[in-house]
Amino acid sequence: HAAAELGGIDYHWDAPTVRSVEEQKNCIDRAVAEGAQAILIAAVSQTELTENLRNATTAGVKIVYVDSAATEPALATLMTDNEQAGRVAGATMRQALEKAGISSGTIGIAAMNQHSQNTILRIKGFRAAFQNTPYTVAPPIYMQSDWQDVKDNVRVRPNYVGFFGANEQMTRAVSEEIAASGTKQIIVGFDTSDYTLSMIQEGVIYATMQQKPPHILMTNYAMMEY
Hints:
Layout: H1 2-6, H2 21-33, E1 38-41, H3 50-58, E2 62-66, E3 76-78, H4 82-99, E4 105-111, H5 117-128, E5 135-137, E6 141-142, H6 147-155, E7 162-165, H7 168-181, E8 186-190, H8 194-201, E9 207-210, E10 222-225
Parallel strand pairs: 1-2, 2-3, 4-5, 4-6, 4-7, 7-8, 8-9
Antiparallel strand pairs: 9-10
Helix pairs in contact: 2-3, 4-5, 6-7
């Protein structure tokens, strides 16, 4: 949309079919080979893309990180304060549990992988919200190859009192499984896709984090509940 408004920009969308370091490396290399002047990227790993990103900057390509950064320097980084957003998500989960009369129990986390900076910070903040409480935050469930891995893990944990989806895809995977199984765990998610908002309206998802960073390195966030 912004590219169309500015005009004179030849915009190409390219993304891995699964959230994979190797596939994202291929996307970076392909953009450089095709003569891209700039790459906007949500890095799936802080460190594993270094060589490819460095090759891109050496070739004169400008790097802009969106949502999740790598260690290679970039022209700009556009992202939410993910750790604080995680704390807000955790505090909202606690509020929902207390409102439901659930004073203790285990809470699950669903995440894409253990290498993305945004995921690491969101989980850190979420865990901090439950320090010194009667609740236990379980080790994260990471997607291995597809959404079904997350769904399978959610299905065998009906005793969990809640789940945190660390991004839109994981929020959807968790909510689809819980809606299908008919269990009533409390879900707090991340991002505001049409699906997520519809699940809030239907009462499957309790709340979600809405990102709205208005400028570079902004630390803004908002919680959206219906």
